[in-house]
């Protein structure tokens, strides 16, 4: 089935620190399309969602689920795999808030603008899509440390390219875990009308953590 991969570098739209990248897998080199316009992102996603036979994997560089521990002593402790970049540190908490805010806006903007057979999902085992089932898969990008590039567009491209490179082994590539997860992305999907079930509130999202920034063919950035 035809598929398209998106990744968003979450940040302030007003301050110009939001960017996105799109990869359409196919023969030869798949160079990401990038932009800093969230309105262009919506237009592009709507176009893909209305195209017959296309599934979409949409990633956001923001924590999309949090641990809710059983013991009080573990409150505000980061997720497994985050290292020294906990989602509860000031920077992580800020980007989490912005990420949920923008995820809800994006999902609401897409609702009603897709083919009726497209299903929202956080189940990375359903990717790559098989058969005739079309999905909108939501996933988390974790672009930090040595993977950071020179621009927000490059960071988005890094995340999209990493997903593409690992899409046949996503379970192996999943980098972050959490005790008793509360899925913030699913909260946004419920609010936007993409979902009605409550079970996914207790499930994590896929998290991909690139180890180096994207560089296009030829090595230039």
Descriptive account of the structure:
The protein is an alpha/beta fold. Helices cover 28% and strands 19% of the residues. It is built from five helices and nine strands; from the N terminus they run E-E-E-H-E-E-H-E-E-H-H-E-H-E. It has helices at residues 38-49, 90-110, 152-166, 170-173, 184-192, and strands at residues 2-9, 19-23, 33-35, 54-60, 65-67, 118-121, 134-141, 181-183, 207-208. Strands 1, 2, 3, 4, 6, 7 and 9 form a seven-stranded mixed β-sheet that branches. Helix 2 packs parallel to helix 5 (184-192). The longest helix has 21 residues, at 90-110. The radius of gyration is 16 Å and the shape is globular. The model has no long low-confidence stretch (mean pLDDT 94).
Name the descriptors:
two-stranded antiparallel sheet; 5 helices; 221 residues; 7-stranded mixed sheet; alpha/beta
Percent in helix:
25-40%
As a whole number of angstroms, the C-alpha radius of gyration is: 16 Å
Total count of helical runs of at least 4 residues? 5
The count of β-strands is 9
Distance between the termini: 31 Å
Largest sheet: 7 strands, mixed
Summarize the helix and strand pattern as letters: EEEHEEHEEHHEHE
Low-confidence stretches: none
Shape: globular
Share of residues in strands: 15-25%
What structural class do you assign from the helix and strand content? alpha/beta
Whole-number mean pLDDT: 94
């Amino acid at each position: 089935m035809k598929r398209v991969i998106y990744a968003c570098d979450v940040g302030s739209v007003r301050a110009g620190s939001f960017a996105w990248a799109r990869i359409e897998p196919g023969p030869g080199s798949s160079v990401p399309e990038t932009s800093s316009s969230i309105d262009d992102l919506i237009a592009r996603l709507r176009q893909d969602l209305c195209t017959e036979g296309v599934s979409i994997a949409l990633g956001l560089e923001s924590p999309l689920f949090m641990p809710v521990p059983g013991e009080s002593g573990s409150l505000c402790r980061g997720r497994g795999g985050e290292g020294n970049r906990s989602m509860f540190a000031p920077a992580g908490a800020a980007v989490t808030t912005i990420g949920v805010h923008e995820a809800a806006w994006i999902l609401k903007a897409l609702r009603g603008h897709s083919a009726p057979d497209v299903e929202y999902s956080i189940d990375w085992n359903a990717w790559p899509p098989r058969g005739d089932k079309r999905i909108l898969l939501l996933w988390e990008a974790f672009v930090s440390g040595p993977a950071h590039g020179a621009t927000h567009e490059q960071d988005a491209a890094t995340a999209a390219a990493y997903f593409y490179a690992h899409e046949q082994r996503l379970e192996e590539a999943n980098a972050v875990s959490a005790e008793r997860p509360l899925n913030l992305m699913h909260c946004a999907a419920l609010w936007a009308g993409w979902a009605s079930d409550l079970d996914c509130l207790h499930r994590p999202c896929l998290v991909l953590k690139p180890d180096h920034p994207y560089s296009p063919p030829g090595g230039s950035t």
